[in-house]
Design goal:
Blueprint: E1 4-7, H1 16-32, H2 35-45, H3 53-63, H4 67-71, H5 74-77, H6 82-98, H7 101-106, H8 110-121, E2 125-129, H9 134-144, E3 152-154, H10 167-176, E4 183-187, H11 190-198, E5 202-206, H12 212-218, E6 226-227, H13 233-246
Parallel strand pairs: 1-2, 1-4, 2-3, 4-5, 5-6
């Protein structure tokens, strides 16, 4: 039986993966002055959705051919390698995006929020497990009015190895004092699904435009547990609960 439901944040409760993609794209255009680099960076982002930014930025710099332009910003940004300079430019853009409460409110996933609140009303434990840093998480939850909706919140600051390693989900299970087989994870990225399954938890993937292809091609989940239309998420979660109750 499922007694706890654990949510990812970016892409699952709020469309911040879209905002992140845009920020990486805008940063590429800013440092190169080339419109084409924006699209290359956003395409490269699709391959690393869900990973920590220290892994995302180097990949995009290499895949989008940004090394020379990023290196030219190292002195200005006080960094020692090109990808760090690119990341600093991108972070400034992203912080400006998420500093606007209206942007966050417009980009929340109402179906995921509805599942979260329904789970709490039924007495189910709830938790958040995200690779994002604590300060960013608190800001987003506060704007969305979700800060009091979780029994435990785990961020990228709380673990040494982020997703796809299972460490963050193992931490959640310990803090909730629940066996992993009683926990259901709602994720949006392939690396997040991999982390949840590696921890021994159940998982439903609510995909986005940036993650759908990778999740379907990964073979990690039965097609029943992949939701491309978020309107179907509550029904699919109920089905998972029903099947686990019958086990």
């Amino acid at each position: 039986m499922i007694r706890a439901i654990v949510f990812d944040l970016d892409g699952t409760l709020v469309r911040t993966e879209r905002l992140k993609a845009l920020s990486y794209g805008h940063a590429a255009r800013e440092i190169t002055g080339e419109v084409e680099s924006e699209q290359r960076a956003m395409e490269a982002f699709r391959d690393v959705v869900g990973l920590a930014r220290s892994e995302v930025a180097p990949h995009i710099v290499e895949a989008a051919g940004l090394e020379r332009a990023a290196a030219a910003r190292m002195e200005e940004t006080g960094t020692s390698v090109p990808w760090q300079a690119y990341l600093q430019v991108r972070l400034a853009i992203y912080r400006e995006m998420v500093s606007d409460p209206d942007v966050l409110l417009e980009n929340q996933w109402p179906e995921s929020v509805a599942v979260l609140r329904a789970a709490r009303s039924l007495g189910c434990d709830t938790a958040l497990a995200t690779a994002s840093p604590c300060a960013t998480v608190r800001r987003i939850l506060d704007v969305l009015g979700l800060d009091g909706e979780f029994d435990f919140i785990a961020t990228g600051d709380d673990v040494e190895r982020n997703k796809p390693a299972p460490e963050i989900y193992e931490l959640v299970a310990r803090e909730l004092d629940r066996p992993v087989e009683e926990c259901l994870v709602v994720e949006d990225s392939a690396v997040g699904v991999e982390a949840a399954l590696a921890a021994g938890m159940w998982c439903v993937a609510a995909t986005t435009e940036f993650t759908s292809r990778a999740i379907h091609e990964s073979g990690l989940l039965d097609a029943r547990w992949i939701v491309d239309d978020h309107a179907q998420l509550p029904e699919r979660i109920r089905l998972m609960f029903d099947e686990r109750r019958a086990d």
